[in-house]
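Example 3.
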Amino acid sequence: MSSNAVDETALGIPLPPAALLSAIVEASDDAIVSKDLSGVVTSWNRGAERIFGYSAAEMIGTPITVLIPSDRQGEEPKILERIRRGERVDHFQTVRVRKNGEHFDVSVTISPIKDATGRIVGASKIARDISVQKEAERALQRAKEWTEAANKRLQEVDRLKSEFLATMSHELRTPLNSIIGFSGILLQQIPGPLNAEQVKQMTMVVNSARHLLSLINDLLDLSRIEAGRTELQWQEVDVAQVIEEVLKAQEPVAKQKQLTLEKRVGDLPVIETDRKRIYQVLLNLVSNALKFTHEGGVKVEARQKDGAVIVEVTDTGIGIAPDQLQNLFQAFRQVEGSARRRYEGTGLGLYLCRKLLDLLGGEIRAESEPGKGSRFSVRLPLKRPVKKDQ
Amino acid sequence: MKARILLIEDNPQNRYLATYLLEHAGMDVVAAENGKVGIDLAESSRADLILLDIQLPDLDGYQVAAALRQGKAVDTPIVALSSFAMSGDREKALNAGCSAYIEKPIDPDKFVDQIKALLPATASG
């Protein structure tokens, strides 16, 4: 007996089942209410007071329709209809009104209440305020829509950019067709003989026009690379043959400047690369080397080394100062200084070389000694590199 | 027999330039200033080779090439001339039925040789 009394003091007196249930209902965060079959509220917990803003005293005896927005009043008869049939309404998401007039999102579960004889006498309703959750969903949806719209705009910008490039390419080249074409015809002396001075001047026109064309081509190539629109043509390429073609194209320049132009090419494997791009890079390097060399000459060497083909272009030209060597492969970085102004160029050539080699999985490096000459080394992989981002 | 070239090119300067070079090399040139006239002339001119600019005012060169291949110029070499020079243009021209592609600006020192190399063996320059 005494031990029982001690226990009860220590553990608390257990509540009778109905009181326990009532305590659980009162403690709930959700609104737990009941109504009769005509929709009049018969019980109202603290959760309901908190969520809807009405006290139990205000709500008990009041039709539940005060909680329903005017445009949703039709929901209640349908709910009551289902309750009368003994059906349950699970997690019905809708909108209700707080006492202060604020509309908010709720999820409600409504079940029939039966008396001891099994007759349906009313309904219990559990309502959860899901406005925060709903707002988050709506925010997510808005973010999604915004992202989609932004993507669309980006695609449009991309399309306009490539259209612009194509148009520029066309518009800039069309006048050059006349300039290069007719100055070439005059120089070939097809319409009639030219005197020595006229030949000299027409040669200048032709050379300038061709130079302008190569600048336009460089610019367009770069814009394409920057826009990620360079299409490479991977194929089996004999680098020795490409070197041969580059030397053939540059032979006249070397002759004119009385420079030597030699090659030393070992046994080279056929490599997988873009022939046109490799030609472009090597032509650029050799033509650069000839441009900055006034005595001696240019040598092109190629060999296989460590799973790659190495091509070196060495000149005996003016060289590059150490502090300028590091910026050599940046855009618009033709080595500065008034003395260098006499070398025409946009400073795009080496930057373009580096960008092209990046695309081809290759590398370019330069070493130089001012006054002695420079050496540019290009490293070409044997196989097409595996792309990480695709 | 003189080789006969059909030149479809809308730009008057370009038309004059190509015509001048080809005629000087001893070829006959028939010129059309747009795609429709070009397609008509392809039937009547019996050209040995067709030079086709890609940027034309009415039909573009790809459409003209496709029409020519379905009409009277099934076997005639069609040489596309384009200043687009974007990657893919060459493939587009070849897919449309062109036999070769010359990038503009044309090189006046090489143009005639390029055309001669593309002429069928029966036609001489």
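The radius of gyration of chain B is 13 Å. The first strand of chain B starts at residue 4 and ends at 8.
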